[in-house]
Amino acid sequence: MTDNGAPMPEPYKIKVVEPIAATTREERQAILEAAGYNVFGIPAEKVFVDLLTDSGTSAMSDRQWSGIMMGDEAYACSRNFYRLTETVQRLFGFKHILPTHQGRAAEHILFATIAHSDSQIPSNTHFDTTRANIEHIGATAVDFMIPEGTDPETYHPFKGNIDLERVEEFIKEVGPEVIPICMLTVTNNAGGGQPVSMENIRSLKELLRPHNIPLFIDACRFAENAYFIKEREAGYGTHTIPEIVREMFSYADGCTISTKKDGLVNIGGFIATNIDDLAEAMRNLLILYEGFPTYGGLAGRDLEAMAIGLEEAVDERHLAYRVAQVRMFGEKLAGVGVPVLQPIGGHAVYIDVKRFLPHIPQSKFPGQALTTALYIEGGIRAVELGTVAFTKVDPETGETVYPLLELVRLAVPRRVYTQAHLDYVVQVFAEIVKRKDELRGLRMTYEAPFLRHFTARFEPI
Fold it and tell me: Lowest mean pLDDT: which of 4-18, 73-87, 243-257, 415-429?
């Protein structure tokens, strides 16, 4: 609400529009069959409302577009690199800044530098690309989300927190020498977009310090996490968002980030750290994979848009509307009978598929079944974050280990859709609710060895 009690409108004016085309149910059925019942394979122009991801899908501002025209495309040491470096150092406080073309490139550089096949890397919850980059080099990614985070119906203000007691036990069990870093994801995307408290970040650093284990933050949604701290954590209500961001990262030794999320750009990321020798080693690897260290696989204009986007990301008016829009969306979905993970996160609404489709076992991919139903019913694209994305095989027993949470994420791109678009999604869900018992599972016909959910193919049972 605004200060006069009126509903909060979008804190921006729409200057450029992109037409979106509707399709018929018959067309969508054929498109989905051709894509192997995987919505990642659907041409974007055949999607009416695209909630697949908030990564790289934001609308850039007039300041960012004007900044693009100031791109310095010098191969080495362009002025845009120094503009980005100054912005990141001011907001995050880190000494060394290494740009990359996106977040998974930053993860690759980091883990290829610090980890090996015996390494164990704990986290609150590793997201898909983080886990894949760790496992690709033979290391082990371990999740220690607090117990409340595994229950979609439980309310906890900081469900994304890492379980400090389990981390402490883990360090004693495996030994600190095999733990090159601890990774903390803010907000906890795989756990339902849930925030991490300042107390939890601070306490984790105190736990790791005696063991000389560096703390790195997966910072993709750092601004939204800071907003939740301001909104929910005692003592931070009068702090500005930049002040909270600076304190969050003062407890970390470094971070990786895809600025395609809270950075409000369509491409970009970086690694930042205060560890001198690690920065040098990563810089050398970055030259091999990404390019010269002052452009990291990006054009100068991209660096400029990233610097401006990071500044706009910590604007409290932007964040207040962003969180309120997603919250209202989730509340309306719950109102038509959709079981929504609580509390509603900052960048997406997560559907608890186990409650929504209890008749479909995880072995038959109920989350994937829901994403296909959404597309057929209304041309809506969402993403499964459950059995397809996070199932593991126990290396000792060979048994399939299903994730505790079976979710479908409706990620809302920043500054793209109006409330009318999201109300349309709610109406489509209301139709699916009426016949949800008729939905059936799927059979996987192809899977890749890593990140299988991107390219897997299915057929209906």
Answer: 4-18
Q: How confident is the model at residue 2 (pLDDT cuts 50, 70, 90)?
A: low
**Mean pLDDT of all residues in 57-80:** 97
Average pLDDT over residues 427-452: 94
Q: Taking the model in full, what pTM does it have? A: 0.94
Q: Does domain 25-54+316-460 have CATH number 3.90.550.10?
A: no
Structure tokens at 168: 């402490």
4-13, 153-162, 241-250, 446-455, range with the lowest pLDDT: 4-13
Q: What string of H, E and C letters represents the secondary structure of the chain?
A: CCCCCCCCCCCCCCCCCCCCCCCCHHHHHHHHHHCCCCHHHCCHHHCCEECCCCCCCCCCCHHHHHHHCCCCCCCCCCHHHHHHHHHHHHHHCCCEEEEECCHHHHHHHHHHHHCCCCCEEEECCCCHHHHHHHHHCCCEEEECECHHHHCCCCCCCCCCCECHHHHHHHHHHHCHHHCCCEEEECCECCCCCECCCHHHHHHHHHHHHHHCCCEEEECCCHHHHHHHHHHHCCCCCCCCHHHHHHHHHHCCCEEEEECCCCCCCCCCEEEEECCHHHHHHHHHHHHHHCCCCCCCCCCHHHHHHHHHHHHHHCCHHHHHHHHHHHHHHHHHHHHCCCCECCCCCCCEEEEEHHHHCCCCCHHHCHHHHHHHHHHHHHCEECEEECHHHHCEECCCCCCEECCCCCEEEEECCCCCCCHHHHHHHHHHHHHHHHCHHHCCCEEEEECCCCCHHHCCEEEEC
Q: Return the domain boundaries, the chain.
A: 25-54+316-460, 62-313
d(C-alpha 421, C-alpha 20), whole Å: 11
Query: Hey, CA dihedral for 175, 181, 187, 190, is it positive or negative?
Result: negative
Instruction: Tell whether the model's pLDDT for residue 394 goes beyond 80.
Output: no
Q: Is the peptide bond before 187 cis (omega within 30 degrees of 0)?
A: yes
Instruction: Decide if domain 62-313 falls under CATH 3.40.640.10.
Output: yes
Percent of the chain having pLDDT more than 70? Answer: 99
Distances from the Cα of 100 to the Cα of 157, 219, 272, angstroms: 33, 14, 11
For the cut 80, the answer to whether the pLDDT of residue 26 exceeds it is yes
In this prediction, residues 16-30 reach a mean pLDDT of 95
